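Ligand: zinc ion. Inputs:
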Amino acid sequence: MNPHLKQLIDLSIVDKEIDAFEPQIEEANASYEAAIAKKESIDKDIENLSNEIKEEELKKSKNELHLSELSQKLEDNSKKSKEVKTEREMKSLQLEEEIAKEQVTFANEEIERLEKIIDNKNEQIEAAKTALAEIEANLESVKADVDEKLKVINEERQKVFVEKEKLLSTVNQKGLAFYQKIRRWAKNTTVVKVEEQACMGCNMLISDKVYADVIKGEDITNCPHCGRILYVETAEQ
Ligand SMILES: [Zn+2]
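Predicted complex:
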């Protein structure tokens, strides 16, 4: 086999190995990123709940203000009732008092309802804080675990990089430029096998003439359909 072709086949294998580290790195990082995302989501929940509580507190204090106005009104009414002269005035005062008392009941009920909502939201915040503390306690060990995995991956990757450097120092420059040009679009299928006279890159059949050239392996042969570099597996590999 043409030694330049052999080098390009080896280079394509090494490049494939290098690319295979990417999903491993992503997978290792995923668990830490998931923990961070969960933490951020709980932080947001707590913030939202706190804002909602502020709104309910505001409604509650409006009701409390209304209550104090109503009690003032009832007090004034009872003073006035001592000075009324006519039946009509008396009835009017009684009606006002009735309405004010109804409003007091309503305001008290409203305050009670709002307090329940506030209590409920505070309980939710407490639960969220507990969950948050758990995540934060685990975060460091998750990070250490990820770092350890990445360290192992990087050591392995470093070995493959060294292998690639070695290959690059021996590979024919023209062949390398040619390989890199195809690799830009073909990625890990830049150099592909021919099986049953078909290019394993584009799956198209190649002519008897091209197939014969690939089998001879004297030159670097491209797929006439897609342009990938072709080879057939031989005993020497
Ligand atoms: Zn092809």
